[in-house]
Amino acid sequence: MNKLVIGLLSAALAGAAAPGAHAQKAPAKTKTTTKAQTATKPVIYSKGAAKAVAAAKASAVAKQAPPAGGQPRDFALPAKEDFTLDNGLRARLVPFGQVPKVSLMVAVQVGNVHEGPNEVAVADLLGKLMQEGTATMTAAQLAQRVARMGGSLSLSVGLDQTTLYASCLSEYAPELATIMADVVQHPAFPASELARLKADMKRQMTLARAQPGTQARMKFSNAIYGDHPYGRGLPTDAQIDALTLEQVQAFYKAQYGAQRTSVYAAGRFDAPALRQAITAAWSGFPQGPAPKIEIAKPLTRGDLLTQDRPNAPQSTIVVGLPVVDPSHPDYIRMRVMNSLLGGSFGSRITRNIREDKGYTYSPYSSLNTRYRAGTWTETADVTTSETGNSLKEIMNEVERLQKEAPSADELKGIQNYEGGMFVLRNSTPDGIIGQLNTLDLHGLPDTYLTEQVKNINAVTPQQVSETARKYIRPEAMTIVVVGDKKVVEPQLKKFQAERKKPL
């Protein structure tokens, strides 16, 4: 019986058994009760108790199955306007929704991947300086202007590109677009802020390096990508200290330009006014260099790497290998396979080492995409004493999926999850902008979005198993463990000895 119903029934019966609870307390009397009286005394329920009893009986009846879900529908990309300026800058405007707000993004294909060996973190320092104002506005004035529009503005630097995000009330869209152009084209680069920004970076890097998750990911990336910028670790204090304002300015001049820049807008806005504002604000931006990202050549190593973390109660595990990127025909199958294997809360690895074994709280697998490269990884923080067993169970689930195709029902649940999450992610202006930027960065057609739900649901159980066999090969995986070496090392030796295919 449902625990809630039992609780309500107990409370109601208790109330029925104490009729004096709402009356003046009667004097106590001594009374003898015979067994016969007890046996024949009728049970009288209050009105509330009777309802609780009825509810309890109703809950005992087998519940009906929920109604079947609706048919999956493809994502319909809203009508959009694309245009390119003479200097090569591209813009995509997407009218969307009814809320009188607009989201904008400027994406410049310049990131850490463009840094030279002696320029590590220069893209990050440049990004921080760009937020310190323009040739005509201080940082405070910039923040005040955006705030008066009911908006916000932020900048982030990634491996492949730098992105400037902003939003505001619809009526201010042209003005905000002009401000964003000013931030990118006319950064002030105030020398007075350089020391403070570098000190902040060093503090942030020190904190990040102390995290076992960061340590494991850095070690894994270096093993897979080697000397490519994707494989670099976090910048050291010495590398940050060595950066100069002249280096930042030279990097900006060499890397930034209209040909590497895209402007996106989604929401409610006056399309002609916004188009005119973008054209006027960006037409004078120099062409700059053509888009270029050095394609990485990831390594399949099959190594077992460790980093000691004395007396750590948990071990951080990263297990993975190179796989295909979104431009590959097998990528959608990889998405579905990953979600079933470890990429969703109801996935097999999660059920095994979290729900059944209790080795970890929140394991997850993911596809980590880069430009024309990618990796599949399973990550988990596991109890130190169960490090070896956790690795064993992860490999067991991989091999089980390789040998046995999932049932149609199990796969359907995953497809519903993946298709539903995809549509949800595209239900906001920010989501639409992010998807369009992904298309542009990876050179994908619009059909990658518009046919994605259909392609997800077209994957068969046999294809899931085939994809696992083709790409998720235990013998080729790089394994990183950050934990208490004296406790973990004997477990890892045993794990390796028990593997059918040596690592």
Automatic annotation (TrEMBL):
Signal peptide: 1-23
Name of the protein described by the UniProt record: Insulinase family protein
Residue ranges that the Swiss-Prot or TrEMBL entry lists as coiled coil: 384-411
Record carries keyword Oxidoreductase: no
Boundaries of every Peptidase M16 C-terminal domain copy: 243-416
Domain called Peptidase M16 N-terminal: residue spans: 100-234
InterPro entries, per the entry: Metalloenz_LuxS/M16, MPP/UQCRC_Complex, Pept_M16_N, Peptidase_M16_C
Record's keyword terms, sorted: Coiled coil, Signal
